[in-house]
Design brief:
Elements: H1 11-19, H2 26-38, H3 40-57, H4 69-114, H5 117-148, H6 151-186
Bound molecules: zinc ion (ZN).
Amino acid sequence: MNSMKGKPMNHKKFEQMILTPEALTSEEREELARHIATCESCRKLSLQWQKASRMLNKPLPMAAPAPGFSARFAHSIEKRKEAEQQKQVRRFITILLVSLLSAALIFAVTYYSTNSLETIIKDTANASAQMLFLWESLKAIISTVTGFLPTVLLIPFLLTAASAMLTLTLLWLVSIWKLTLQKETVL
Ligand SMILES: [Zn+2]
């Protein structure tokens, strides 16, 4: 066996042999032993593989899964899935809120530029009180329902609730707008 250091040689064959020692004939075993004696990289691989095989064959306390491990593992997967879904819901709600705020901003600019300060303060106070009440009620309902709803139903429910909130807010904006327009035509 010719094995000069640094010279590329057929390690593949020996690596294969190292990893499947049980499949070797006695001639192959000798051939491998001769190669390992002269080849540092294959010697290293052989030692590592022997160590790894020992660890795999002998159930170490650390390698053996603790009781309830698979259940906990499944639970953690479930948790991760849940977190992913919650992230999606949060993203959806964020988008809703951003569009809501944009609509409110456009409305506010129009409203505040066409009304007297007194009207603005009165309307805003009234509408805000109503809105706050509606939001609080909705939030209470949502937190109650989410407490016992399974995750599968939670997502559609939250989406529906978010849509309902958006619709309510838009209705609120439109009603103030209408009120303002009516006042203007009366005056
Ligand atoms: Zn080698």
